[in-house]
Batch of 2 targets.
Target 1
Amino acid sequence: MSELREPCVPGLFTEEGGASLLGARCRSCGTPYFPAPSHCRNPSCAESALEPQAFGGGGTLWSYSVANFAPPAPHRFDEPFRPYVIGVVDLDQGLRVVGQMVGEAADMRVGARVDLVVAPIYHEDGKAFTSWKFELSRGSREHA
Amino acid sequence: MREVVVLGVGMHRFGKTGDEAVGNKSVTELCRAAVDMALKDAGVSWRQIEAVSAASSRFSGGKGWGLNGNDVVEDLGGTGVPVYNLSAGCAAGGNAFNVGYSLVAGGIYDMMLVVGGEVMPRGMIQTSGVEDAADPEFLRQRCVGMPGPSFWATLARRRMHDHGTTEEQMARVTVKARQCAVGNPYARFRKAVTVEEVLASPYVSDPLRLFEICPVSNGAAAAVICSAAMARRFTRRPITVATSTVATIAFDDALPRSLAGPVPAGPSLHTEARAAVLRAFERAGIGPREIGFTELQDNTCYYELAFPEEWGLCEAGEAERLVEAGETAPGGRMPINPSGGFVSFGEATTAMGVFQIAELTWQLRGEAGARQVPDARVGLAQTNGLGGNATAAILKR
Ligand SMILES: [Zn+2]
């Protein structure tokens, strides 16, 4: 890939060593967080003990919807607007995450296996600005 | 705690700036009309109001759009009454009612005015506009791009998976809502629609369509409440406030409201709405099966299916069948939103909690005309607001 890529917001996710979200997990109560908060927010947690954790790999599509119209700013997108799918994914690591889906709505189904990826969401100044997205796993694509 | 009653209610018809219903009226004008009607309905003069509880969308101290209770008081004539401006997103009307109820129940005031109203800015409601990487809503819009309706659409899609709900069944909720609104002079959309017309309206966020999502509206509603002891001087048939509650979102709420959260061990529910409603059942000593009819926050038709079962009004997965059998219509076994609901009114954010109190009052008095729930005795109202707010109220005669 020759185009210049840059995260749409720095410090939230990385492509190095595989796509992953840079979050945290509380060592006391096990609660996963993305993005990382300053302290654990679980009211039943005895003592906040956050440590950095990267979330990635596979998950299951909990549900999805379509952005049939362009959302208002601060969202950015390439013109002309093309409707895209938004997924809610339960990662195997225990984190439920919202993200754009790679692919068309017709191919999606609740319960499908997906993988976390990093891909462009808009282009500006000759650069591709990336975000995290989810892509149907190979097996899920064949069954769709 | 003293018993509190609703003495009078009022409303200004809902509409969109420039239309025949609201024209170019300001929020103060809309509220004035609703307040005048409520005072007249109660048989109370403005000078007898001891305090005002207003649902406010305006940043305190700032200008900008939105209702501020002080403007309403100034317009009515400054009597020096205390004004409480309550902010809770679209639950603000419910919060204002709760604060009014609590102050009268606690014996601080005998007679209060509760008011909510809105003239909504054009277009989609936007976030602050500040590009702050520490603001989860900014991150959600920049990194994902999740317009408001797609949150509801995601939940609707999940319901289709869990219960086999069809798009036609969801369309039937709108058909029922609009049929109710035909009989409501205060509704913005008063024309009946067919299943075919709903299914022909474009997707806003697949699987939800234009006719299945409430737009923003202008409108206002008001209620005069007082102690039961004082009510005897004004009416022989007051409507009793069995209870009024407020709740906020719980840590274990698993709905996709932000960017991410823990995968839940159990079901994914609206924890704020459920807490407010279940607390209302408990405080009133009235169970879900004793509720005669419900006005709930139907930002989309999905909620008429999901909320009744989250609160135990019906069994899980039963709602679709009840809708198809006509049981959620005013004459059915579980009437939902006989007013026509948000889908028929549009959402004038801060007015909604008070709008529900007005509809409950009319229903319980038997004054609801063509949309009347036969022999209505106990009604439940519920609102939800951005930021994780919810309210509930139970009224009875
Ligand atoms: Zn913890």
Target 2
Amino acid sequence: MQNIYLPELAKIEKITEETPDIKTFDISFADAGAREKFTYLPGQFIMMSVFGFGEAPFGLASTPDRKGYFQCSIKKMGKVTSEIHRLDAGNIVGIRGPYGNGFPVKEIEGQRLLFIAGGIGLAPLRSLIYYCFERRKKFPDITILYGARTVKDLVYKPELKKWQEDKSIKTVLTVDPGGEDKNWTGKIGLVPKILAEMNPFAENTAVVLCGPPIMIKFTFIELLRMGFREKQVITTLERTMQCGVGKCGHCSIDKYYVCKDGPVFNYEQIKTFLEEI
Amino acid sequence: MISEMKKFIISKNELKKILAGIVAENIKLIAPVSRDNAFFLEEVSDAEKIAWDYSNVVKPVKEHIFPMREVLLDFGRGTDPPALDEPEARSSGKEKNPAGNMPPVKEQVIFGLRPCDARSLLVLDKPFLQEKYVDSYYKERREKTTLIAMACLNPEKTCLCSSFENGGPFSSAGSDVLCVQTGQDEFLVEILSEKGEKIFKNPSFAQPSGEVLKKLENLKADSEAKICKALKVPENLRELFEAGTWETESLSCIACGICRYLSATCYCFNITDEFEQRLRYWIPCSFKNYTKMTSGEISREKKSARFKHWYFHKFSYHKDNFGEYLCVGCGRCIKYCPVKIDFTEVLGKIGNSKQEQ
Ligand SMILES: Cc1cc2nc3c(=O)[nH]c(=O)nc-3n(C[C@H](O)[C@H](O)[C@H](O)COP(=O)(O)OP(=O)(O)OC[C@H]3O[C@@H](n4cnc5c(N)ncnc54)[C@H](O)[C@@H]3O)c2cc1C
Ligand code: SF4
Ligand code: FES
């Protein structure tokens, strides 16, 4: 019988420093069978172990179209993430998953897409963004708004540059006031304010929103003000997680388990929650 | 298939002999024992140590299937880097166990648990076994466990098992065998499963007479009449989420978690690494850090929110998800709450409170 708590061993192939406290890890399973079997949807997550230190959930940041390895971008926060940051290429970690529902890729087909991310919130969105890039016929109209505290805190800088150069999509970058440097050519201002300036079409648009709670809160208010309806806005929720498989209870919100029923929800669902997100 | 002879009469000595036989067969026997003026379900090596005169044991049966603390994974003692770091370690033995790194589990027979506790395992089976993800640690122990329950002749004033479908002091739900003490030295034994049949394989026991069966009915009626508590969950519980009564009712709660630890059905846990082992242990949702996120934000920071969550999980969310309440009415949370909070009374007051927006 399969043991749902037993991680599969995987090797860190490559580490990219994104910001002073965020690194992207390219990871591939040690076992060829496991490597082959591992498929996922954008928006799903894995549980990563550093044996002896613990386990923590991380969103899959890579496109599921690239087989053989996957990526997680990890911010150094506490016990496990600090330990992960201490690892080198070649080191072994444990991986369970993929878990969670993932983004509703079928539902958003054919709609205009507006991605709004703050800080490391771009990581799970990046998976979906590349998924859509691969299927431009189904996702012809893509806008990306990404903000971070300072220029230093922007993740995936080389890719952001490519996205800005790609005229078939629209990419807007912003940093908080005071977070700019001499060479900054992007916007300056909080995400909700820049969003208001952009004044996007609400009709037939799906918004995918991911970032720190405070940013999500004010961006959502702004979206409603601009005529978006709750159903159009999709977000990922964060809760503390121990098991990832709907057992331990930690991630519960109302009758849902974020690990199993989420982490992706739309605001029409969120509106019915008894508890605040 | 269970054979025809499902009910029979047995003397106390014969019953003890059967229990002694279990120990002799090197099967783990867990039974009520008396310790520190209270009763506990513990492993016994001598059937003579078993207590017979108890109302219910302090700790529910769940710990024998889902221990308070258990090792989920062992990364390999003394190896650096840990053995699990090396793919070979996984193919060489550790994976041979059906439950991954779980140590081999011994067959066990639990004797003398009460019907509410036997039923609690049926309730716990749903989240642990009937979901997309099957918990192999729970499953392994569950499959290797035989339950011989003892019907309650004298329910306590905190008991409310009869408020539940399938529940009651004589309920056989979840048991492999149900015993009823019908006389000073007389037990009526009912075999309910193949597992149960394996234990009582001696075919020479006497069939119960009509008189005994009549006695059984009377004992059952007497026992049920002693249950004075009842569960009444307000039908519109969800609409009462914002009721101010939650705040006032939770004032005296000290968030100690006793009602969660001693609940027959609460099953929240933590997973943590300690050196070379990954452990899982129970954690009560009344603790603040239960919902503490890495950002430092605590989803249920207020004590009243944590207090209320227990009620909503048991009597609303779990019902929506699994079709039944996460409660069997054992009454332990009422009996052992240090500040004497009675959840049936709280639900009553909530039901009477006005909906507040
Ligand atoms: C679905 C999901 C996807 C995620 N995706 C990503 C991602 O892509 N990238 C990313 O970087 N992060 C992601 N996260 C967040 C990430 O999981 C956390 O940052 C991570 O769990 C932190 O673990 P840690 O051990 O480093 O921190 P912890 O050791 O948990 O420390 C965090 C803080 O919490 C406090 N704390 C922890 N435990 C306790 C306790 N028992 N009692 C009191 N205080 C305590 C500590 O004081 C510490 O300051 C995601 C989270 C979820 C739920
Ligand atoms: S046992 Fe009583 S005091 Fe302790 S957490 Fe439960 S309700 Fe609160
Ligand atoms: S993380 Fe354990 S239930 Fe969701």
